Amino acid sequence: YRTYGNRDFGTVKGITIEYDLRRTGNIRINANYTLQFAEGTGSDPNSALSFVNSNQPDLRTVYPFSYDQRHAFAFTIDYRYGSGADYNGPTIKDVNIFENTGLNFITRINSGTPYSDQKNITPAAAGEGTPQLQGGLNGSRKPWTYRLDLQLDRTFNLEFGKEEDQRKKRAFLNVYIRVTNLLNQFNVINVYRATGVPDDDGYLAAAQFQSTIQNQLDEQAYRDMYGMFMNNPFNISRPRTIRLGVKFDF
Questions:
Q1: Who's near 205: CB < 8 A, 6+ residues apart?
Q2: Predicted local distance difference test score (pLDDT) of residue 73
Q3: Which of 16, 26, 48, 69 has an alpha carbon within 20 to 30 A of 248's alpha carbon?
Q4: In three state form, how does the secondary structure of the chain look?
Q5: What CA–CA distances, in Å, run from 84 to 100, 139, 243?
Q6: What is the predicted pLDDT for the residue at 162?
Q7: What is the pLDDT of residue 241?
């Protein structure tokens, strides 16, 4: 029988450098960079399962964790107008056009996380075959990712009650439009180990599998269906998303 034991160990080392510009006039900026080294003998409780199943000895080798992200950059820029005496924006006939209105940008740039390169071609999209490790565990890296988010919002101050009532209730209505992945960046989150790309595991083009593919009931239909199956949407980031929302605080 097999059972879990507390044998794995790991070390996460890193440093973060941050610059924070507090609200100065209309603008606030926050920028930080993180350098991290996350290594150990197992990224999760089942990392050594293949060794256990093959009756290998209790091998403990330090390698990068699957979430080891070497470089991470984050930038936030917020430009906002105040209200009343604090307003310094454009006006039209004593109307403060951008009162309580702000524009916010968030940018994230991250280096790729590791994965284990595969020596042989297998129908990985279908979860079949026996992969053979090439190089070291988590010895390869996925591409860098980049994302830019934007939010434009405006807050309206609301008051409830009569003019002579000294206990008038106040509330705040915030209307916003939020755009995630503004530039519609194509970010690779996961790849097939044998090819290093997110939409092709190499199975359909591999010479050793051509006879198996040709012996299907309809070869072209099989290729088309398997091609769609390989194109896993979870291997890439979400496309540009636009949300219009309202938030009511009272």
A1: none
A2: 98
A3: 26
A4: CCCCCCCCCEEEEEEEEEEEEEEECCEEEEEEEEEEEEEECCCCCCCCHHHHHCCCCCCCCCEECCCCCCEEEEEEEEEECCCHHHCCCCEECCEECCCCEEEEEEEEEECCCEECCECCCCCHHHCCCCCCECCCCCCEECCCEEEEEEEEEEEEEEEECCCCCCCCEEEEEEEEEEEECCCCCCCECCCCCCCCCCCCCCCCCCHHHHHHHHCCCCHHHHHHHHHHHHCCHHHECCCCEEEEEEEEEC
A5: 9, 58, 29
A6: 67
A7: 97
Q: Report pLDDT digits (tens) over 93-132.
A: 888 999 999 999 999 999 999 999 999 999 999 889 889 9
Q: Which of these, 109, 114, 19, lies nearest to 72 by C-alpha position?
A: 109
Cβ pair 185, 149 in contact under 8 A? no
Whole-number Å distance between alpha carbons of 66 and 46 = 13
Residue type, 234: F
Round to whole Å and give the CA distance between 30 and 27: 10
Residue 198's φ and ψ, nearest 5 degrees, are: -85, -10
Q: With beta carbons less than 8 A apart as the criterion, state whether 106 and 78 touch.
A: no
Residues contacting residue 197 through CB under 8 Å, at least 6 positions apart: 188, 191
Q: Could you give the CA distance from residue 91 to residue 103 in angstroms, rounded to a whole number? A: 18
Q: What pLDDT, on the 0 to 100 scale, is given for residue 163? A: 63
